[in-house]
Amino acid sequence: MMTSFAHRPTLRAAVTGLSVSITALWLCACQPKSANQAVLSPEPAASAPVTASAIAQSTPASTATTTSTNADIQQKLAANLAKSGIDAKVTSVTPTAMPNLYWVKAEGLPAFFTDNTGQYIVQGDIVKVGGDAPEPISANLAAADTKVALAALDPNDMVIFKPKGETRAVIYVFTDADCGYCRKLHSEIDRINALGIEVRYLPWPRSEQTMPIMEAIWCSPDRNQALTAAKQGLPVNAPACDNPVRRIQQLGLDLGVSGTPAIFDANGHQLGGYMPPEQLARALGLS
Q1: What are the chain's domains?
Q2: Average pLDDT for the chain
Q3: Among residues 30, 125, 145, 176, which one is catalytic?
Q4: Reduced to 3 states, what is the DSSP secondary structure of residue 229?
Q5: Measured between alpha carbons, how far is 43 from 185 in angstroms, rounded to an integer?
């Protein structure tokens, strides 16, 4: 999806490095078992946290005009999607730093871009160059949305493993019970916690086959123990209960999760799949 800068190796390395590094990380992840759960590849992690003010600076100055334009594009896009047989409710259209390119969120779909006619859909990496370093527009917008979504989750819907001492960083991990890389990550949970990293697990069954065990974990009186048992291949049984598994599975799909473990930092940046504890600490900026 990235443009090839065959005659400019320095620029090519700077820009495509954003995608290459995250692609390598995602090789260490278990993929969905069903084609019905296949989604777009996750956006690459941004090099620095994005702020609301930074996004605001990239939008036009006239709020009234912008709001009217956004609403017009949203209506055009919704009509064009319907004409093409795509059943999706467009919830927001936001201008980006790139002229005539808009960031779109729609129910049940990963975010994407459209133009000012609402006829074209762009899925992939948009990178702005010309500054001191390439600016990953797609990743920053995705991270801002993800940060809000993760912060809104109820801690009671997670299985949390906290450090015994100071918490220096927090990660959110979409996980499945029988994923080999998920099990490897959890086998190192003590080392991860020892580095001051709090792990907040979120259920993401890769198929209906693991849905019952994920629900049993989240219905167990001791979820931490149940999750550890499941990661060790042991049976987990618990009475059925009202649980968040399907809701959070859908959230993962909306955020572009395409395999497990899917690791996000507290700023919404997607770090990738499994990585050793020390590498994870470096990705979080911990020395």
Answers
A1: 70-127 (3.10.450.70), 154-284 (3.40.30.10)
A2: 83
A3: 176
A4: helix
A5: 22
Which of 125, 145, 179, 219 is catalytic? The answer is 179
Active-site position among 200, 206, 254, 265: 206
Distance between CA atoms of residues 186 and 213, nearest Å: 16
The predicted structure's pLDDT at residue 64:
57
Which long-range contacts does 54-61 make (Cβ < 8 Å, 24+ apart)?
Answer: 54/140, 55/94, 55/140, 55/141, 55/144, 58/95, 58/96, 58/97, 59/94, 59/95, 60/95
CB 103 within 8 A of CB 111: yes
User: Is 197 within 8 Å of 172 (Cβ atoms)?
Assistant: no
Name the H helices within the chain: 9-26, 52-57, 63-83, 137-151, 180-187, 189-194, 211-218, 223-231, 245-254, 277-283
Residues 6+ apart with CB under 8 A from 196: 163, 165, 166, 167, 168, 169, 286
Q: Is 179 a catalytic residue?
A: yes
pLDDT in tens, 136-186: 998 899 999 999 999 999 999 999 999 999 999 999 999 999 999 999 999
The pTM of the full predicted model, rounded to 2 decimals, is: 0.76
CB atoms near residue 219 (< 10 Å) = 18
What are the tens digits of pLDDT across the range 100-123?
A: 999 999 987 888 999 999 999 998
List 145, 178, 182, 219, catalytic entry: 182
- Residue with the bigger pLDDT between 7 and 254: it is 254
Residues paired with 148 in a beta bridge: none
Q: Is 182 a catalytic residue?
A: yes
